[in-house]
Amino acid sequence: MSLVAFLGAIETGLLYGFLSLGVYLSFRVLKFPDLTVDGSFPLGAAVVATLITQGVNPWVATVVAMVAGALAGLCTAILSVRFNILNLLASILTMIALYSINLRVMGRPNVPLLNQPTLFDGLETVLPIWAILLIGLGLTKLAIDFFLTSDIGLAMRATGMNPIMASAQGIYTNRLILLGMAMSNALAALSGALFAQVNGFADVALGVGTVVVGLATVILGEAIFPSRTVRWATLAVILGCLIYRLVIAMALNADFLGLRAQDLNLVTAIIVVLALVLPQANLLARFKR
Q: 146-172 burial string, b = 16+ CB within 10 Å, else e?
């Protein structure tokens, strides 16, 4: 694998790191099977691309994209909490609706950002894009760590672990689910907004398989770097995202394997299966001893 391919994989891994942290909040902290990210990721890209092409400041456009993603997460949470729709079904309904909303926002399936300003324009002269993303992702990780160890964060974690017990202790579990889902999808939309600005386009099909990628990185990180603390768990998620992208890049660049870009989902499925099976096989071997 060439240096260019290596740096490209690192850059993509850092871009998707925000998404992976969002998936970690919904799937691991809240125990909420959320497929909304398949719609909120391209929603962030659609909003930021549309606003930038209309002359809006890229920083403002990115914040608006995060707000749009948070609203998408709130819709899923409201369907689940207020209307008692199954979590998975609620997220599927929102995801389906977001496809049409994304088309409405962009007005067409694809919006190019060539020769348009991005939030990297001023910073790129000082640091490479991957370094900027690394700093931003690191600050986001620290913010999530601080939140999850605060009183509200501990209450949210209790809600995910045992909602009945948490409710009996006077915790407003429904409100925390709303907050957690908003945060999760805001991070997914942020990931999509940054992806669009780095790659120079937004497409309505960007979100296909996004939740699978997010879950793959979370599972891979937890399998390689098991942890009992929040700080190490979020770090494991980020490292899992980087390792996942490096493995994908190596697999697609290995000529003897004969893999192509269309085999990405196949490689992803194999990585997830290995991440799930290998730890169990190791435990089984220890048990037999």
A: ebbeeeebebbbbbbeebeebeeeebe
112 phi and psi, to 5 degrees? -80, 150
Residue 195: count of CB within 10 angstroms of its CB: 22
Give the pTM: 0.94
Per-residue pLDDT, averaged over 76-88, amounts to 96
* Tally of domains in the chain: 1
SS3 111: strand
- The pLDDT assigned to 18 comes to 98
Domain containing 116: what range?
3-288
The CATH number for 166's domain is 1.10.3470
Strand segments (E) across the chain:
110-112, 201-203
Cα within 13 Å of Cα(59), Cβ side: 4
Predicted confidence (pLDDT) per residue in 217-253, tens digit:
999 898 888 888 999 999 999 999 999 999 888 887 7
